[in-house]
């Protein structure tokens, strides 16, 4: 409860607004956009904690060394093996199947660099595990973070990615580094 209040204070002091409410489903995927800076994780973590939530993110296992690894795990970090032969999607599906509660935040761009090729791993995971996807924006232009609601998936991942891009384009969100974000196909 104290951490939640501290996070609300940090948001207020830094000029961020938060809209949306805590999602109560025990297992979900948040698709968050735009991802142009490492600060996206920090501010999003503060935002979700300010709502009283506990979210997870995927981090390369190489970052889980002492003492950094301890804090990353406390913040919801899940170590992922991205070495040759490692199947990241299979690792995440396993994590969802092993846990009773998991709110996983994923950025479909998969990089902080400008890219038109958004990844559909979230789609495969959500459809395989049978969990909902919620859309989230962290808009550095107006300093507002929002959980927009559930995004219904179809059998067509490519079409769903196009719908995602159209949604985020309509919202006009801006990354911390705007030149690194695009909703182009």
TrEMBL record:
Keywords tagged on the record: Acyltransferase, Transferase
Molecular function as annotated in GO: 1-acylglycerol-3-phosphate O-acyltransferase activity
An annotated GO BP: phosphatidic acid biosynthetic process
Residues passing through the membrane, by range: none
Pathway entry: Lipid metabolism
Domain of life, per lineage: Bacteria
InterPro entries reported for this sequence: Plipid/glycerol_acylTrfase (IPR002123)
Protein's UniProt name: Acyltransferase
Record domain Phospholipid/glycerol acyltransferase: where: 29-141
